[in-house]
Amino acid sequence: MTTLRLLVYNIRSLRDDADAVMRVIKSAEPNVVAIQEAPRFLRWRATAAGIARRSGLVVVGGGRPAAANLLLCGLEVEVEHQADVLFSKDRKLHQRGSAIAAMRLSGAPFAVAGIHLDLAAEPRLRHVRELHQAIDREVPPDFPIIVAGDTNDDPGSRVWQALQTRGVDAWASAGTGDGITSSVAVPRRRIDAAFVDPRLTVSGVSVLNTPDVRIASDHRPLLIEISLSQ
After folding, report:
1. Residue pair 192/151 in contact by the 8 Å Cβ criterion
2. What is the pLDDT of residues 65-80, one digit of tens each?
3. Which among 40, 46, 73, 201 has most CB atoms closer than 10 A?
4. Residue 63's Cα: distance from chain center in Å?
């Protein structure tokens, strides 16, 4: 059995301590990282490449074409297909989207869709439907999908219920403690999450809370261990 280490991390556009962000990612020793609020403006490609290099990883895809969702992976991961998707946009709201990739680790197939959903309730739910349509279009059916990112919503909401129609809430399955990820300064909400295809097994979930985490961003990252089958 192969274990995938997936890190989910909203880095707040590197507006806090960028060096600490890299240290947090590297110390987690992830195979794949789903980043939200990645750089997407001036020199965003170079900045994304720098995040990957300094974290000991490579860029899979995302960035500006995926509305600041960025996927990174280690060299041990084989990328078979990658797609950047933009969702429908409402006036006066930020563009939202997803970075999606079908990958293999030690030959075992899996896919990751990184998300950062809207602050407004109606587009947030609409974008889940658009996400599922994109997954059906971009991910081969034999690649179990993991949807991971910042939901901007809470467990039990309509958005979480929609996400759970296709995936298991990783924290509810194998997490310990309260799972709070936001914010670092005033921890009170579990809005960062991974929804894992039921064909996979979640073996462990932890919210990182090191000294570097507390200065790197306004979110705590989520580290999920998932058992993959070949």
Report:
1. yes
2. 999 999 999 999 999 9
3. 73
4. 13
In whole angstroms, how large is the CA radius of gyration of the chain? 16
Tell me which CATH homologous superfamily contains domain 2-228.
Endonuclease/exonuclease/phosphatase (3.60.10.10)
Is 132 in contact with 184 (CB distance < 8 Å)?
A: no
- C-alpha span between 114 and 62 (Å, rounded): 9
Is the separation of the CB atoms in 113 and 147 below 8 Å? yes
pLDDT at 101: 98
CB atoms within 10 A of CB 130: 17
Long-range contact pairs involving 61-67 (C-beta distance under 8 Å, separation at least 24) = 61/99, 61/100, 61/101, 62/35, 62/38, 62/99, 62/114, 63/38, 63/39, 63/99, 64/40, 65/97, 66/97, 66/98, 66/99, 66/114, 67/40, 67/94, 67/95, 67/96, 67/97, 67/98, 67/116
Judged against a pLDDT cut of 80, whether residue 230 lies above it is answered with no
Strand-pair partners of 147: 113, 195
Q: Nearest 5 degrees, angle CA 96-CA 99-CA 104?
A: 160
CA separation for the pair 39, 68 (Å, rounded): 6
CA 171 to chain centre: 14
As to burial, measured by CB atoms within 10 angstroms (0-12 exposed, 13-18 middle, 19+ buried), residue 205 is buried
Q: How do residues 177-217 score in pLDDT, each as one tens digit? A: 899 999 999 999 999 999 999 999 999 999 999 999 999 99
Query: Among positive and negative, which fits the CA dihedral 35, 96, 151, 215?
Result: positive
